Amino acid sequence: MEKLLQIISGCAVQDRKCQKILYEQYYGTCLKVAFRYMDTYEQAVEVTNDGFVKIFRNFGRFEIRDRERMEIVMLGWMRRIVINAAIDYRRREKNTPETSELSQTGNEYKDDSLLSDNSLKFKEIICMVRELPPVYRLVFNLHVIEGYSHQEIANMLGIMVGTSKSNLFKAKANLQKKLAQGKTSFATCLL
């Protein structure tokens, strides 16, 4: 714990050696977060590196309030920065397709029994999530994986709350259809 405290203190004053240690220690964790939001490994690497630039620029603002939980708090703070870097990347590259409001036509597909199948492997589910259209995957990850509310997602992405809910609904429906059909193209899934 003392070593981490020294690294954090060093990063706060832009010590390159401490930054390198932090980067090497947490690169893989941040890359996994970025990869959930990006289409390719190269994009995830770019987002991760952008995230670390922002992390190092803002480390002076990071406060240690609880020494016992400082690593957990720091990882949460870093995760949030990487997620924001992924959102910024999407905006910058204009990879986010048009979003739409929830339709009133009732094209609903729901079968909760499909989600309780224990035979599915974690990697298969992740592959299915990665096959979602980018905007659906983004909202799905932010809401289901990261735990953000629809209001927070709407604020982060500059969309309406209803659009966030609609995109989550469509992502879930898409995943349920894939589960029912047992379809996923593992060749395109990079895990």
The description of the largest β-sheet is: none
Rg from alpha-carbon coordinates: 19 Å
The fourth-level CATH homologous superfamily of the largest domain is RNA polymerase sigma factor, region 2, helix turn helix motif
Q: What best-fitting shape do the alpha-carbon axes yield?
A: elongated
What structural class do the secondary elements suggest? mainly alpha
Continuous helix count: 8
What is the total domain count?
2
First-last Cα distance? 32 Å
Low-pLDDT segments: 95-119
CATH topology of the largest domain: Rna Polymerase Sigma Factor, Chain: A
What is the helix content?
55-70%
What average pLDDT do the residues reach? 81
Note the beta-strand portion. Answer: under 5%
DSSP, total strands: 0
In the CATH classification, which architecture of the largest domain applies? Orthogonal Bundle
Q: Report the order of strands and helices.
A: HHHHHHHH
